[in-house]
Amino acid sequence: MNKPNFKDAMNRCKIATEYEDLQENYKPVFIGKKYFLRTYGCQMNVHDSEQIRSYLETLGYEECLSLEESDIVVLNTCAVRENAKDKVIGFLGRAKHLKKTKKDLIICICGCLMQEPNEVDNIQEKHPYVDIVVGTHNLHELPNLIMNRINKQSINVYSNSNQVYENVQYSRDSKISAWVNITYGCNNFCTYCIVPYTRGRERSRKPEAILNEIRGLKAAGYKEITLLGQNVNSYGKDLEEDYPFSKLLEEVAKIGIERVRFVTSNPWNFTDELIGVVAKYDNVMPYIHLPIQSGSNEVLKKMNRPYTVEEYKRLFDKIKQAVPNVAITTDIIVGFPNETEEDFQQTLDLVNYCKYDGAFTFIYSKREGTIAAKMDDKVSLEEKEDRLYRLNEVVNHYSLEKNKTYEGIEVPVLIVGESEKDSSKVYGYTETNKLVNVEAPKSVIGSIINVKITEAKSFSLDGKMIL
Ligand code: SAM
Ligand code: SF4
Prior knowledge:
Bound molecules: S-adenosylmethionine, iron/sulfur cluster
Helix content: 25-40%
Number of helices: 13
Largest sheet: 6 strands, parallel
Low-confidence stretches: none
Strand content: 15-25%
Shape: globular
Strand order of the largest sheet: 3-2-4-5-6-7
Radius of gyration: 23 Å
Number of strands: 21
């Protein structure tokens, strides 16, 4: 048994990143059995689930969409906010109930929540019916843990990793658009955030491995790739060679895949060279997610975000100037410990300045083990909810205003699927990452088509295909 601890997870002493090729050769020993996989959280987890799916399918399992049909349940968890945990625990109750009648059901939990010592203790003490607990650093051990399942709970979570695994197999959700990891982990330790503890130190994949993966995706017909990392613009800082993110992005663009995106780029390390590459290549999409978190310098300092509002605005303006029609979105937290009404007003001022295309807005959630969790907090939940409500009013106003500028114009849209609400429609994304519901035949799924926008809403656009 290996249980996590935050002391090791915080260790950032300079150990060189080690690269290891996964030599995986599993046999389909569970033919006829079914798996149910549920994913919580961000794009990283969604992409990790593509790795989990590949393992389960290689072992012979087939996916099913109802828990009751399944022979193995895998929950890929998130730890960023408390409510993500509540959902997992709620779901576990259902799985426990099922196991009473289906004794051979295997229940497995992995992902960020399992990197938290308290949560692993909780599973051990209150949920002994869970069979397998595996952490974010050793997901590749999952197939062996399933094959060699023992009749008692097995917990395999490591806290520190300087490892990057290559040759990971993915069973991707989409045949059109793919995620590609470029970095793992984070070294920033924003005081509210659990990610540096659950995902470990920042490690970059080698450029050639990334470029080869993307060449393979292009050859397989993918139209879009999104480079993934907690802070993509610190890519390469741990590599021996001088290889900044701007250079990687340029090399990726040259491969010639139709659309290249990246997420998340933080407001620090966002160099002029990087802006230059985004502006220069038509296939690097004019869309940047640039999290601000707060419009108050006081709060930013307490959050350990290494920039000021003034620096952020300068960067924001520079990107707007250099990249025509760029869309910029952000993340904002309200109710950080002792955020004053004046701090909050400064956040509203910043949103009024940037007029974002969109924003993910959150109420601060206390995460045990982080620095902010020790700060005393006099702001009531009621006040925080009121701030979130007021913030969303302003954010949504600008989203709609931005979307309205698309009405009547023609834009290229990459169609990725059939609309769930209306089977006569398909849906896709503009270059600026706006969701569009389009009247068009299903045969256009996977193509970039020209669409005339007929109506703008706050969170999506409607349009018609132009022949
Ligand atoms: N690495 C990315 C960055 O720095 O912007 C973000 C990763 S985090 C998974 C996504 C977002 O969750 C953050 O930008 C932040 O707004 C939000 N978040 C993280 N910790 C939070 C917390 N304790 N409470 C509320 N929101 C949080
Ligand atoms: Fe969390 Fe900050 Fe790292 Fe983003 S940069 S993952 S918010 S610690």
